[in-house]
Design a protein that fits this description.
about 400 residues; mainly beta; 24-stranded parallel β-sheet; two-stranded antiparallel ribbon; 26 strands; about 5% helix
């Protein structure tokens, strides 16, 4: 009898310890259910089942790739810090059917950064969904991502890859070679069921945000000091977006926005057709060194893209809105509009057009000007919605 009582007490004690262990890493009272163990000192591997919940009291050293596979979820509580240490080897990728929940707040954003504080010191965040893309003009519905080598695309426009709120991505963009490198945050065929709000890409070596098809919508995006474009889209992306702020910095960069339908099929369907309301783009100055700022354009619209962009403030660019290729020019004034734009200062060429054969074209109808445009909310200054969780203004 004493032995039975002793065993019962032992089991009870062990059960209590296990429950305490689970609850110490929870997020809003939830308990992890995955067989994957997140080691803060060596954070890498494949999450293949259940939900992994990180511990905000620890700093996670991202020593290799983290892949969230189909059916699994990675949840990151407010205030969590993840430090990439391995160049192209360290990244976070969410496969089709996987989910990532970033539960930051304005007071405690989630920070994905690098141990060495310089551009390109780790990969970045890659999300692959099942929403439509146009790479093969409808002949096939999926493709393989240029980084992380995961399948993306499909027919589920409202596909859900999770929720990302109050996230700062720093020093990403590690390069495999001169033609291939990570962005801060790459959306590959991500669907509209995914929530993306209050996210910053800061001082990366390639684009801040890039959309490869899909239907994901965004709100409150900040892209500062990324060494290529601050925002980029292609492959038929058609999201609805509110409050974007982009700024070149650190002595290197290209465009504020680079927008394509598809590089190898300007008329491929579905055609890129996002809506962006409230946009600020700050350039390097109209006379900035060409060697460091070779594509000094606030907004480049080309390769057949459509877009409706409104309430825009731009300053310090050689060219404001540049439209290229016959397919793109055909949409000017109808499906391609930049409405209520304020050229605040130092934008000597407001619009520029070039046909596919290289000859110039008038595209003045792409814009309507407004002296009262506010851009992302506060002209070229830090928007009120960005206070407390973002940097670099």
């Amino acid at each position: 009898m004493k032995k039975s009582i002793l065993n019962f007490v032992t089991v009870f004690a062990l059960s209590g310890a296990l429950l305490t262990s689970c609850s110490s890493n929870d997020d809003n009272g939830k308990k992890p259910t995955s067989s994957f163990t997140a080691d803060p000192a060596n954070f890498q591997g494949k999450i293949t089942d259940g939900e992994v919940i990180l511990d905000a009291t620890k700093t996670y050293k991202l020593t290799g790739g983290i892949r969230v596979e189909n059916g699994a979820t990675l949840t990151i509580p407010a205030g969590t810090v993840i430090e990439g240490t391995g160049g192209t080897a360290s990244y976070i990728a969410v496969a089709q059917g996987g989910k990532i929940n970033v539960n930051g707040t304005a007071a405690k954003p989630v920070i994905m950064t690098a141990t060495t504080k310089a551009a390109g010191k780790w990969g970045g965040l890659v999300i692959c969904g099942k929403a439509p893309i146009n790479r093969d003009n409808g002949k096939t519905t999926t493709a393989t991502s240029e980084v992380a080598e995961l399948t993306y695309g499909g027919t589920i426009a409202n596909d859900n890859s999770g929720s990302i709120k109050y996230l700062r991505i720093e020093y990403a963009g590690a390069a495999f070679n001169t033609e291939k490198e990570f962005n801060g945050l790459s959306f590959f065929g991500v669907g509209s069921g995914t929530v993306v709000e209050n996210v910053q890409a800061y001082y990366g070596a390639d684009d801040g945000f890039e959309f490869f098809g899909g239907t994901v919508n965004t709100k409150n995006l900040i892209s500062i000091g990324n060494e290529d474009d601050q925002f980029d889209w292609t492959e038929g992306w058609s999201g609805t977006n509110e409050n974007w702020y982009g700024k070149l910095d650190f002595g290197k960069g290209n465009r504020g926005i680079e927008a394509d339908n598809f590089e190898f099929g300007y008329a491929f369907a579905p055609i890129s057709n996002p809506t962006i309301t409230n946009l600020t783009l700050v350039g390097p100055g109209s006379t900035a060194a060409v060697a460091n700022f070779a594509e000094n354009q606030a907004i480049k619209l080309r390769r057949g893209t459509k877009a409706k962009i409104s309430n825009v403030v731009v300053t310090a660019w050689a060219t404001g809105v540049d439209v290229e290729n016959d397919e793109t020019i055909a949409f000017v004034g109808t499906d391609l509009k930049v409405s209520s734009i304020l050229f605040l200062a130092d934008v000597p060429t407001k619009t520029k057009g070039k046909k596919t054969d290289g000859t110039s074209a008038s595209v003045t109808g792409v814009i309507t000007e407004s002296a009262t445009a506010t851009g992302a909310g506060n002209g070229i200054a830090q928007p009120t919605w960005a206070a407390g969780w973002s940097v670099g203004f």
